[in-house]
Amino acid sequence: MTPVGVFSGKRVALFGLGGSGLATARALLAGGAEVAAFDDNQASRDRAAVEGVAIVDLAGADWSRFAALILAPGVPLTHPAPHWTVEKARAADVEIIGDIELFFRERAASAPDAPVVAITGTNGKSTTTALVAHVLRRAGRDVQMGGNIGAAVLTLAPPALNRIHVVECSSYQIDLAPSLRPTVGIQMNLTPDHLDRHGTFEHYGAIKERLVANADIAVIGVDDEPSKQMARRRAATGRKLVRISGEQPLDEGVFAGVTANAGGLDTRIVQVRDGRPRVVANLAGIGSLRGAHNAQNAAAAFAACFSLGLSPEEIAAGLRSYPGLAHRMEEIGRIGRVVFINDSKATNADSTEKALTSFRDIFWILGGKAKEGGIGSLTRYFPNIAKAYLIGAASDLFAATFDADGRVAYERAGALDVAVAAAARDALAHPGEGEIAVLLSPACASFDQFPNFEVRGEAFRRLVTGLPGFEAFAAG
């Protein structure tokens, strides 16, 4: 835990007692603050009360007595309308912050030079966060990873000069963190998302940009125009900037270059310093880092870890041993030349696109509760599909897309167990040489058949590991 002493002896309001909210309450109490907490959920209130957190009806509280409102990131700050606690705090001129802000204030007070890598972006931030943490640990560093991934940031060990915090930050968390000043700030990419919470794409982008604007070293992806503009604004300040790309060569920075090699493709990470390029890593054969999106993730990880003092050789070794994240292009194992990929986290077409670009001869399991737009945007990747297997409520919608296109053979499997058995059967019988993928990348929410994408992915894992002849991949 990181005790938060910056509010010692002061009274603070806290709304939201889920996982991160309860962790925040514990950290504030450990630092000597008086916490008045509330949550709309009775079970959350009861759980907090058992731990000694004072449950207070904030609607009737005297807000002039509060030094701050600590807001859970899932609670609306501005859109579609400010939460009632936000309105009360503003009326009483009480600042509104979140757990990431508390972490950075505590760092500023106790260990201002402690290294912190903060990562954001519309896509790829979780993989990049995990990848940076893995590479640093592989090189023997003391690493604490959390934030929007895994552990809440205040459950981690406190900032220290010999400890590196690697923190994933969502736009919601950044919006509540005015003192966010990481050692290395990474902005991966920017596409429209969470507009229901931020109102406009411009506002969403401005929030994301805060993470790199005040970083000692800014690492910014330049594969989309809004992020390019961020990089230009950062460059204009004269402060340290490292541009990264998964798609294009750069005159300065870190990029991924794809070259043909013995009938296949090698993705090489190239660092350009003072106009001089050198290959610093090769992603060929690293199954957990397939695809252009992961090339950008690897470029970002290299830039961050190099900035923190790791050698190219240490970073390359870390990349080679990276095991990947569960449910995100996760290689479970194989039967002969058939590899089984768990991409259950792909709950929309944009996410699934990354998987469809990473393989050829795909036996694709998809379906669930459809998102707006369906899979119409994926038709240009249909030549990669050997056969599709439809599950869940989206079966009719997706079948109509396949029928209209005419290039994809498909089967209405209905349920995941039927789809896995059929896809494995067909993949094992597929003629030719080279790798074949049985891919669960649903392009749908799971809620018609599973509570969440994690449960769906674990079900896929159980079904696949039970197939005759299955061999799991060794851990990295």
What does this structure look like?
- The protein folds into three domains: about 10-95, NAD(P)-binding Rossmann-like Domain (Rossmann fold, 3-Layer(aba) Sandwich); about 110-320, Mur-like, catalytic domain (UDP-N-acetylmuramoyl-L-alanine:D-glutamate ligase, 3-Layer(aba) Sandwich); about 330-465, Protein-Tyrosine Phosphatase, Chain A.
- The two termini are about 30 Å apart.
- Strand 12 (about 255-260) and strand 13 (about 265-275) form a beta hairpin.
- The chain has a nine-stranded mixed beta sheet with strand order 7-8-6-9-10-11-12-13-14, with helices on both faces. It has a seven-stranded mixed beta sheet with strand order 20-19-17-21-16-15-23, with helices on both faces. It has a five-stranded parallel beta sheet with strand order 3-2-1-4-5, sandwiched between helices.
- It is of the alpha/beta class and about 475 residues long.
- The protein has helices spanning about 20-30, 40-50, 85-90, 100-110, 125-140, 170-175, 195-200, 200-215, 225-235, 290-305, 310-320, 350-355, 395-405, 415-430, 455-465, and strands at about 10-15, 35-40, 55, 70, 95, 115-120, 140-145, 165-170, 185, 215-220, 240-245, 255-260, 265-275, 275-280, 330-335, 340, 360-365, 370, 385-390, 410-415, 435-440, 445, 470.
